[in-house]
Write a structure and sequence with these properties.
Blueprint lengths: L1 H16 L5 H10 L4 H25 L5 H21 L5 H21 L9 H17 L4 H9 L5 H26 L7 H24 L2 H24 L5 H28 L6
Amino acid sequence: MLGMVVLTYILASVFAIAGMGAAGVLIPNYIAIGLSVHAAMLLGLAQNTAELTVATAMNWKKGLIEWRNVARVFVPAALFVPLGAYVNVHTPRILVLVALALFFLFAIYRMVTGGVAESKDGWKTYLLGAIQGFTAGLIGVDASPIAIIAFSYLFRNPKKVSANTAATALGVSGVTLLTYALLLPRIPIATETLLTVATAGFLGGVTGTLLMHRVKPPYVRYTTMALLSLATVEITAKILTANVPETLHILSVGVVVSGFLAFLCGMGRHRARRPFPSP
């Protein structure tokens, strides 16, 4: 129990800096220590909700959250969470991982290149909100990297991207937790375990958000990019070692490789467009 609590606190602290819930990383660890998949999923979402609740409250107090923009992402996300949860049982997991890998690569690209959307491009945030909700329902976590993409179109300040992502992820985590609680049969989780893990997530949210407020904006961006990069590597490793039919495996690996090449091409074009410093 102590190891699980310490791990929850540390990861919640780090992920809170980027405005992301730590459930996506914690759930596999909960499974590794003996919890069932669905118990680990519900425990991870409960931890997410505790972590992001305090992060959102602290960011709101700092004036970093713009609720109208949060609504533009959260409302379509909330509508599509149940659909994703329903489709969950009919979709090969490797295809979900491929989609996540591509989204994570694009999120990293957006964090590097920046650029705010024009008013005529506002539909992008609604679309990304719907994708976040569908993905959250599909995989049982908040899919906050997709919200990072949406808010990178709205804000140049990485702290605002982080704060508004956390607010959206909080709502998506709550809806996802409620959806799975209704869809799944009753799962016995000791109340003591639930409260202890949620408390660790809450304290991690406090620590991470305090750090986010105190460091310079570029360091928030670097932390977010590092977490997205690690998540991309982890997902890619799962795709490469997946035990699926050969044709599906080759197709999945090919799509991820193509996405990585497109990412490198986009980064190269971005660097080529940057002005050279004067001699």
